[in-house]
Please model this.
Amino acid sequence: MPIITLTTDFGNDDPFDGVIKGVILNICPQANIVDLTHNISPQDIYQANFLLDSCYQYFPKKTIHVCVVDPGVGTKRRPILIQTKGYFFIGPDNGVFTSIIKKEKNIKIIELTEKKYWLKNVSQTFHGRDIFSPVAAHLASGVNVKNFGKSINKENLVKLQTTKPIKNKNRITGIIQYIDHFGNLITNIPNDFTYKKLTGKVKDIDFQGLVWCFALGNSKKLTAIHGSSGFIELFINKGNAAKITGIKTRDKVDVKYNL
Amino acid sequence: MPIITLTTDFGNDDPFDGVIKGVILNICPQANIVDLTHNISPQDIYQANFLLDSCYQYFPKKTIHVCVVDPGVGTKRRPILIQTKGYFFIGPDNGVFTSIIKKEKNIKIIELTEKKYWLKNVSQTFHGRDIFSPVAAHLASGVNVKNFGKSINKENLVKLQTTKPIKNKNRITGIIQYIDHFGNLITNIPNDFTYKKLTGKVKDIDFQGLVWCFALGNSKKLTAIHGSSGFIELFINKGNAAKITGIKTRDKVDVKYNL
Amino acid sequence: MPIITLTTDFGNDDPFDGVIKGVILNICPQANIVDLTHNISPQDIYQANFLLDSCYQYFPKKTIHVCVVDPGVGTKRRPILIQTKGYFFIGPDNGVFTSIIKKEKNIKIIELTEKKYWLKNVSQTFHGRDIFSPVAAHLASGVNVKNFGKSINKENLVKLQTTKPIKNKNRITGIIQYIDHFGNLITNIPNDFTYKKLTGKVKDIDFQGLVWCFALGNSKKLTAIHGSSGFIELFINKGNAAKITGIKTRDKVDVKYNL
Model:
């Protein structure tokens, strides 16, 4: 069964994702539709970019990843389809695929222009339902990538300014790029297993690390650990670090490695 | 694979919908179960009626739509199965299918009375698990509609008093019938593409429109747009209109079309 | 299609469960993955134990139930696989399967040690993704239980101290063990259909019962009913009893049966 994943900012209250599944199954009854998440913060294309990049490679080859975080829906922003060596990505050309495009070589990009693969009536507010999902379903049914529109150049795509950590001797400065459901603070500083010990600060809050597992963290103070998404995480053992410290996404993180 | 959708007020915290899926798969292992939404406001049969009506036609023909918004569970309210030209609906006879019954011609209605298609032990508080889902699963497995109980008349069904907009020359008065996750305010005034310009008021808050897409809306003031569910929507560009304005479901909307 | 259910404390905001589905489908493309719930309170192994126990038997025989409520991830707590007569359970050996182990006879338990069934890179913070789901997927693909590790003894498993109600003549003292989305208060006192009438107290709040269905409950006062999970529930008709009364999980419940 072809797999189609959904990454959106729809939340869980409305039936928007349910309707999208109806549209897909109408065209491709054998599709296996997986919710990656529907809880991207409304219109937050940076968050969508980060989460898609963290997750897409865990899926089987040929998976079609659809992203509907689309504040520019109905404007001239282009609907696109990206084919990499292993995967397909469908969504708006607004930067949500920035990290994937940087990472993947040999990609093919199509601007979706062929209306026969869309729903008959296209609204100006819900291209997730009217364009992206029917295209995903036709692709899953075997339609060739080149049939969906005209090829465009990688250089022409909208790209986000992503923040890279800055390294200076044994110091690294980064940011908090994501906060998860447990209140764990995921930085943009990659795990580096050559380091064992570090100290650091977010605003005026100190942290120490690295510990091997959550249970070894301090239950009152911020502790650092190698996170499961490939970046250093800050946490409080059995506590919600975000709530307790008030630290927010995009706050600056200063790390000092004790080599 | 036969498709069964679920529309409930269970929320996402409890395993009620998970259990329903277990019950269905026990009877019909090949069923493809799709969550339409589990976040109908508790006991809100008006909201369930609106959302079901907006969504059911996006699914493939023969889809079985199960609705469990059922404050009268355990009372004499009847469990019913409705067959329309294209779809099946299963749930309580409490009005949740009002708009569908109005719209669809040639419908067949069965009161669910045949206990051999229910779970063995029927609780008095969870017919979603004990009656509606096993019936849906048996139907998906090929059991004929007439086997589930006795035929009843359309006229005998419970119907909700739904509010229709009132038109008077170039004025229309309606209500806010639904507020989505983004805080967009969906009225009960149908999109009408012969109109281009309008002004209006909800309580003492003015709005203008129509704009072509969200990005063209004002980021401080309420703006009107043709919504994707077929009704005029009011929104604030990149803002949560419901939170910012305090407008609630069932608030009155006055529109003046500038023809 | 083999069925794998997921019970976690991931919440619905992050793509953790989405990634797990990718991992499973990579190994076992034909798996039918069902979310039981992702909203166990963070690290609440008591709640996980209660909900798993209430739900697992509604699924078809051979269903694989995966539980990832795992505050001890990365410590020496063992990853385990339990085979009962009808089902499989995979998760941490931290007590989440306590009630199932008590209820089921003839169980086989394996400590997961065979790394060839895990992801290549095992993080110290996300064994749900790196160990439990790949093992579940290999099991669903037909790998024999004994291949995953070495057999261990039932007596060696971590068990939770669960609170049983205390009976004394016509009085029973129990606790609130779970509060659902509707605010209904589920006690740990089993339904007993030989009783018809009871009165009781939680803290200083009185309740009466039993009523046949929710609609017969008082809309201002707490009422008792035989709950659908097999335990006495306290509710307020069309109201949120938990919010209105302030009653919390683990509060004491005193019941007096009027025989």
Remarks:
- The helical segments of chain B are 16-27, 45-55, 98-103, 127-140, 241-245.
- Chain B has two domains: 3-156, 166-257.
- Residues 176 and 204 of chain B are 14 Å apart (CA to CA).
- The interface with chain A takes residues 1, 3, 5, 7, 12, 32, 34-39, 51, 54-55, 58-60, 63, 180-182, 212-216, 225-228, 233, 238, 240 of chain B (CB under 8 Å).
